[in-house]
Amino acid sequence: MRKETLWEAKKKQNPGHSAWYIQRFEQMREQGADLHGEARMIDAMVPRGARILDAGAGPGRVGGELARRGHAVVGVDVDPELIDAARKDHPQATWLVGDLTELDLPAAGIREPFDLIVCAGNVMTFLAPGTAGEVLARMRAHLAPEGRVVIGFGAGRGYDFEQFFADAEAAGLSVDLKLSTWDLRPLTPDAGFLVAVLSTALGSGA
Q1: How many degrees, rounded to 5, is the angle at CA 175 between CA 127 and CA 56?
Q2: Where, if anywhere, are coiled coils annotated (predicted)?
Q3: Residue 29 banded pLDDT, cuts 50, 70, 90
Q4: How far apart, in Å, do the first and last CA atoms of the chain sit?
């Protein structure tokens, strides 16, 4: 039986949370805020026309920008309200409702693996408790042989950075790069945010 994610629990407590979240970024965009730092980093890591999975896509802020830059983007999120917004604002990408613990895109007819998987916006901290390892293993299963996973989330949100590194290793992923920002500043012991670049661990099998 699927566990309720912390995002779903938050919506239960506050049914208007998703609408607020969507509106928040719309207001930031109208105010001229830079909302594409994550997409710029990801865009620099892959060739034009790369296959990218936006895991925990929300309303499509990152994946939509990557699609605009010419990549083949599939976005998945557990929240139908957020996916509806992504479909409306970024029709050039493919958006699917789904829990990352059950990620199985070949079953949905999307059989090609991905050159890169991006998981931004603190998604890892909104998963159902205890499921991060399964999510990381599912991501790895969707990677092309030379593909990479880029994950960003903040400290103090219930998922310790060292536990994340251990979960990644257990899922067959190696940590290639540890950063504290999406503009490539190195991770420091007191960093309040982590951006990790992962790849398939050598010797872990296909």
Answers
A1: 25
A2: none
A3: confident
A4: 27
